[in-house]
Amino acid sequence: MSMPWPRWPLLLASLVAGPSLAAGERLASVSQTTLLQLRAREPSRAAESLSLLKAQRGQLGLGERNEFRMSSVQTDGFGLTHTRFQQMHEGLPVWGAQVITHLDSSGRGLTVTKDSVHPHIRVSTKPVVDSASAAALALLEVHPLGLPTRQPSTELVIYPEVKRVPAVAGKRRETLNAVDLKDEVVGYRLAWHVHTVLDNTQDGIKHTDFLLDARSGKVLERWNSLESAATVGTGLSQYHGEVKLDVFQNAKGLYELRDTTRTYGEGLRTYDVNHADILYGEIPKPVLYEDADNVWGDGQNYDPGSDTQSDNGQTAAVDAHFGVQATWDYFQKIHNRFGIDNAGTPTFSYVHVGNAMDNAFWDDECFCMNFGDGTFPSDPDGFKSLGSIDVMAHELTHGVNAKTADLIYSGESGGLNEANSDIFGAMTEFWLRNGRGDTIGDVGGNWTISEELSVVPLRYMYKPSLDGVSEDAWSPGLASLDPHYNSGPMNRAFYFLSQGALSTATKNDYSSTYLPDGMAGIGNDKAAAIWYRALTTYLTPSSNYAAARTASLLSAADLHGSGSEEYRAVQNAFAAINVGYSASTYDDFSPPTVSALVSGSAPRLRLTARAWDNVNVSYVEFYVDDVLVSTAGTQPFEFTLDTTSLDNGTHHLVTKAFDLAGNAGTSAPVSFTVANSFTQVIGNAGFEQGDAPWVQEPSDPGYPIINYPSTRARTGQGMAWLNGYGSTSVDVLSQQLTIPADAQTAALTFYLNILTESSPDEALDTVVVEVRDTQGQLIEELAKWSNVDATVGWAQRSFDLTRFAGQTVQLRIVGSENDDGEITAFWLDDFALRVITGPDTEAPFVTASAEVDDTLAQVGLAGNVSDNGFVGAVELILDGTSLGSVPTSFTKVLSTSSVGDGRHTLVVKATDEAGNTSTSELVSFYLDSNRGQLVSNPDFELLIDGWTVKTPYPGSNTINLFGHSGFFYFRFSNTQGPNTSSLSQFVAVPADTVSATYSFWLWVTSNAFTDGAPHHTFTAKVRDANGNDLRTLETFSNVDASDDYAEHRYDLSEFKGQTIELFFESNVEEAPQQPNGRTYFALDDVYLEVSGTPDSQPPTLNVGVQGTSGTVQLYANVFDNVWTTQLELFVDGAPVATLTNPNGEYTRPFDTSTIGNGQHEFTAKATDQAGNVREATVTFEVHTVNDVTPPTVSAAVSGEYETTVFTASAADDTGVTAVEFYVDGVFQGSVQTAPYRLPFSTLPLTPGEHTLKVVALDAYGHSASATATFTRAGPLLSSTRVLVPVDGTYDLGTLLANGADPLLLWNVQEGRVCGTVSWTGVYTAPAAPGLCHVLITNKQDARSSAKVDVRVYTADLNGDRVVDGEDMARLAQTWGTRVSSTTTADLDASGSVDDSDVTLFVSQFGR
Question: What does pTM read for this prediction?
Answer without folding.
Answer: 0.65
